[in-house]
Design goal:
The complex is a heterodimer of chains A (278) and B (263).
Chain A lengths: L5 H4 L4 H22 L1 E2 L2 E2 L2 H7 L2 H34 L2 H16 L2 H12 L4 H8 L13 H24 L4 H9 L4 H29 L3 H6 L7 H10 L4 H30 L4
Antiparallel strand pairs in A: 1-2
Chain B lengths: L1 H30 L16 H5 L6 H32 L5 H9 L6 H14 L5 H27 L3 H8 L4 H30 L15 H11 L3 H24 L2 H5 L2
Classes of the chains: A mainly alpha (278), B mainly alpha (263).
């Protein structure tokens, strides 16, 4: 194999790497520099201004709260669902995977629009609730935290189910049977065998859903509006309406640090629990 | 206990599927209803909102702009991404894993942060025109998909097949063309398709680079929803759902649903 010699072939990665250095790494460095800089020179003023404003702490808190709840709901729905999906026969399984892939691939704006229709006062959700006798008057869902959580869980649920399914389908059902034969209670068997073996998929799913949901922008914009700001909506308003790049840069760096911390924590966790990196 | 567990698993799976498909189903239903206030069709179906699409101000230019940006960004990404993927899979040099991580990392980082970083960067360079900045930025959106699927595909490819083809008398270009290209075509096409879709769908990066005259489709759509939501938006959305279904069918034919789902 003369032409694809291992020594020279590495050079083929240069164009993409240089492109990403110039248009990805350097811009992020510029953003960091911008957050530490004003007209008079290097300064921490943007950071002190940002973090001494109680409102901004509220924004950070809300961003984390929504992400944690979204991750929790996705786990509660997705973990059992992955087990059922792994047990289905091939044809039904393909149909169900298609049912997960289609919403995943459809534009987030289309899905968000669908939820604004579903959640309105005279919308389908309220009609169903009233028909079932669960409520007399229409509930206010759109522009509430409940509506936001429904929408955001909906957007990111496939990112929980798919990595879990990849792990669960490789699980040998005889392992739990063996645990039972050896006198383990079902709960103990689940905790020591099943949960432990599916942990890599669970960590992958939680990491994906959490880091995607702290960065969600379209869903909060359409389903809850400006009265409930999260870090992404704060970043957008700082740049697009307030023309306050200092504030926006600090919020951007904060969001970046949060998502990097998530990724690093997840890598450390999966190394700790599985004995190997991902 | 075991039975309760299974019942729970099935309930959650059913709930998940209904929940996931609900916003798509309601969008399609509303687009077919003659009512102007987002009602499900009762007695009759109507295509009136599809006829209204033509009257939407600025829709066609935004669709064309999005397609143009996505097509060019995907073409550039396929070239750069294929070269880089060959390099990291075939090469034996330090830092291969770091390069792979670097080139897929935009997938894991908040798009909005990349958007404002590029906004400030382009401004500091004096580059303010929408089209070139969108094109430069969207390569960062598309390339990670190409890189991810191609490194997967290439690591399964047996490079000694190329030597075998050479031994059997094929010239070098013919060996690559007849042996390597057909095997890698599926990952190439899926990476390209998903990258293309994510570029057409991108909001958080584009929003900082567009101007009044250059709006991509997601930005135009979000503006319609904010300004005057009527079932015409549902009709446009339904067409987009249809397009996604087509892409998925194509992907299923090429590589199968399992590999597209990454499982």
């Amino acid at each position: 194999m003369r032409r694809l010699r291992p020594a020279g072939v590495g050079l083929l990665s240069l164009p993409a790497t240089i492109y990403f250095l110039l248009l990805f790494a350097v811009p992020l460095a510029v953003l960091l520099a911008e957050s530490l800089h004003d007209r008079s020179g290097w300064t921490l003023a943007h950071y002190t201004r940002f973090f001494t404003t109680p409102y901004n702490w509220g924004v950070v808190g809300r961003t984390l709260r929504v992400a944690v709840l979204c991750t929790l709901f996705c786990t509660l729905l997705g973990y059992p669902a992955a087990f059922a999906l792994a047990r289905t026969r091939s044809l039904l399984q393909s149909a169900l995977i298609a049912a997960l892939l289609l919403p995943l691939s459809v534009s987030v704006i289309v899905k968000a629009f669908g939820w604004t229709v579903l959640l309105r006062g005279n919308g389908v959700v309220n009609q169903a609730l009233q028909a079932l006798g669960l409520t007399d008057a229409p509930l206010r869902l759109l522009f509430t935290e409940a509506g936001l959580l429904i929408g955001i869980t909906n957007i990111f649920l496939p990112f929980m189910v798919l990595p879990l399914f990849a792990v669960v389908r490789q699980l040998d059902p005889r392992l739990t049977e063996a645990a039972a034969t050896l006198g383990s209670t079902p709960l103990h068997g689940f905790l020591t065998v099943t949960l432990r073996l599916t942990l890599p998929g669970l960590i992958a799913g939680i990491t994906l859903v959490f880091s995607l949901s702290i960065a969600a922008y379209v869903i909060p914009t359409l389903l809850i509006g400006d009265t409930y700001q999260t870090l992404p909506t704060l970043i957008a308003t700082s740049f697009l309406y307030l023309q306050d790049p200092g504030k926006g840069s600090v919020a951007g760096v904060t969001l970046l640090v949060l998502s990097l911390a998530t990724i690093i924590a997840s890598a450390a966790l999966s190394r700790r629990f599985t004995g190997r990196g991902r | 206990m075991r039975r309760i567990g299974l019942a729970l698993a099935w309930t959650m799976l059913t709930l998940s599927v209904v929940f996931l498909l609900a916003p798509l189903a309601v969008t399609i239903a509303v687009s077919l209803s003659p009512s102007p206030v987002f009602e499900l069709p009762r007695d009759e179906l109507s295509l009136i909102w599809y006829r209204q699409i033509g009257a939407l101000d600025g829709l066609l230019p935004s669709v064309l702009l999005s397609l143009e940006v996505a097509a060019i960004a995907t073409a550039v990404s396929l070239v750069l991404g294929t070269l880089a993927a060959i390099a990291v899979v075939r090469g034996r040099f330090p830092g291969r894993e770091a390069i792979t991580t670097f080139l897929v990392s935009p997938l894991m980082l908040p798009g909005l942060v990349l958007g404002i970083a590029l906004l400030q960067y382009f401004r500091s360079l004096g580059l303010r025109e929408a089209l070139p900045t969108l094109l430069l930025a969207h390569v960062l959106v598309v390339l990670p998909y190409v890189m991810r699927t191609l490194t997967g595909g290439l690591s399964l490819f047996d490079f000694t097949l190329l030597d075998a083809a050479r031994t059997l008398g094929l010239s070098w270009p013919r060996a690559v063309l007849q042996v390597m290209v057909p095997v890698l075509a599926p990952s190439f096409l899926t990476g390209g398709l998903f990258g293309f879709l994510s570029s057409v769908d991108n909001y958080p990066v584009s929003i900082f680079l567009t101007d009044v005259y250059h709006k991509t489709l997601p930005i135009q759509l979000l503006q319609y929803i904010g300004e005057s939501p009527d079932p015409t938006i549902a009709a446009v959305s339904t067409l987009m759902i249809g397009l996604t279904v087509l892409v998925l069918i194509l992907g299923e034919r090429l590589v199968g649903l399992d590999r597209m789902a990454g499982v």
